[in-house]
Design goal:
Sufe protein. Chain: A; about 0% strand; mainly alpha; single chain; about 80 residues
């Protein structure tokens, strides 16, 4: 938005319930945050909030990676529009 906050987020995940829950939580957490705040979300925070067992920690890593990939895509498109 005009204040630099993330107003909406969506995800598409094909995987287990832990992967879906991690992605869903990540999208909810980044709404209303700045890009820098969203970039600081760590997979450990997601795993802790969802009480993921160690065998499912990779699911929270996928969610963190997706946030970072989306932010990088946003920044790339923003930079292209400036030129």
């Amino acid at each position: 938005d005009e204040n630099g906050k993330i107003t909406d987020a969506r995800f598409k995940t094909f995987g287990c319930g832990s992967a879906i829950a991690s992605s869903s939580l990540a999208t909810e957490w980044i709404k209303g945050k700045s890009v820098n705040e969203a970039h600081s979300i760590k997979n450990q925070d997601i795993a802790k909030e969802l009480c993921l067992p160690p065998v499912k920690l990779h699911c929270s890593m996928l969610a963190e990676d997706a946030i970072k990939a989306a932010i990088n895509d946003y920044n790339t498109k923003k930079d292209k529009n400036k030129n």
